[in-house]
Write a structure and sequence with these properties.
- The chain is α+β, with helices and mostly antiparallel strands.
- The protein has one domain (2-162): Gcn5-related N-acetyltransferase (GNAT) (Aminopeptidase, 3-Layer(aba) Sandwich), CATH 3.40.630.30.
- Helix content is 25%, strand content 31%.
- Helix 2 links the parallel strand 4 (83-91) and strand 5 (114-119).
- The longest helix is centred in the N-terminal third of the chain and has 19 residues, at 12-30.
- It is globular.
Length: 187
């Protein structure tokens, strides 16, 4: 029994504790260190309870906390706030490779219809493989992937629509394609 529920203000300390586990796992890729109190810093966390374009969620398997999701509005290609993004997505190691992540991802994507971008840092190959698989299944292969290396993001970004819809032709993106953009069609 997997549950995904909005995290209330009173649950903010719970999400902050889970964020520590996430950032510890993530330090393998970004090299982050703890601060002087032995904690990682995530400066945007409190914004998720006061800004309309941000939404925090807690994940439970049965009665047990098993992860969290932070959804925000952003665009890795342009820096605008015109797409949904998985700002952070965390499933505790114990619950990985049992379908929890895909279930949670599909649930979240269904809750926020419209344009989506999901990015992974280059160093996190496991996350890239996970998201490519989940998004391909969710969209029936109708997504594009961009390899970005710009001021907004460095790494692969999958671009698609929720609910999934078949796209004809090239994706309409605002502005010019950056010179450092690699386009891969995954249809």
């Amino acid at each position: 029994n997997i549950e995904v529920n909005p995290a209330t203000v009173t649950e903010r300390p719970i999400l902050r504790h889970l964020m520590e586990l996430y950032q510890y796992d993530f330090s393998e890729f970004d090299g982050a260190d703890t601060g002087p109190l032995g904690l990682y810093d995530y400066p945007y966390l409190d914004h998720y309870w006061v800004e309309a374009e941000r939404s925090p969620f807690l994940v439970r398997v049965g009665a047990n906390l098993s992860g969290f999701v932070l959804v925000a509005r952003y665009n890795y290609l342009t820096g605008a706030k015109d797409c949904w993004v998985m700002a952070e997505f965390f499933v505790m190691r114990k619950y990985r490779r049992h379908g929890v992540g895909e279930h949670v991802a599909r649930y979240i994507l269904d809750q926020f219809p419209g344009a989506w971008q999901v990015g992974q840092i280059t160093e996190n190959q496991a996350a890239s493989a996970f998201w490519r698989k989940v998004i391909a299944r969710y969209t029936h292969g109708s997504f594009h992937e961009y390899a970005l290396d710009n001021e907004n993001w460095r790494g692969p970004v999958q671009v698609f629509s929720s609910p999934p819809s078949p796209w004809q032709g090239e994706l309409n993106l605002p502005g010019q394609h950056p010179d450092n953009l690699k386009i891969e069609n995954n249809r």
